């Protein structure tokens, strides 16, 4: 696994090592999320890709994804 920029051997575990260039907003959001959650950047990126894939599959199959806020209002989620 990759933790904090180091590669740690994990027998039997398959993973891909990718470098990505983040735009300024994404880098700021990643830093803020790391502080708030205490997750590693790798964990956050893995969860983000998995969540994006799930939502994309749902939207492509015709599912409408709605966010319900604490005040009861709703907002339809769209990926662009």
* Percent strand: 15-25%
Radius of gyration: 16 Å
Q: Biggest β-sheet: count, sense, barrel?
A: 2 strands, antiparallel
Low-confidence stretches: 1-8
SS field, number of helical segments: 2
Please give the number of β-strands: 4
Q: So what's the overall shape?
A: extended
Sheet with most strands: strand arrangement: 1-2
Give the helix level as a range of percent.
40-55%
Order of helices and strands: EEHHEE
**Structural class estimated from helices and strands:** alpha+beta
Overall structural domain count: 1
* Mean pLDDT level: 85
Report the span from N to C terminus. Answer: 31 Å
List keywords for this structure.
80 residues; alpha+beta; two-stranded antiparallel ribbon; 15% strand; extended; disordered N terminus
Textual characterization of the structure:
By secondary structure, this protein is α+β, with helices and mostly antiparallel strands. The chain has one domain (2-77). Helix content is 42%, strand content 15%. It is built from two helices and four strands. The strands form two sheets. The protein has a two-stranded antiparallel sheet with strand order 1-2. A hairpin with a 5-residue loop joins strand 3 (65-68) and strand 4. The longest helix is centred in the middle third of the chain and has 20 residues, at 41-60. The radius of gyration is 16 Å and the shape is extended. Mean pLDDT is 85; it is low at 1-8.
Give a short summary of the structure.
The protein is of the alpha+beta class and 80 residues long. 42% of the residues lie in helices and 15% in strands. It is extended, with a radius of gyration of 16 Å.
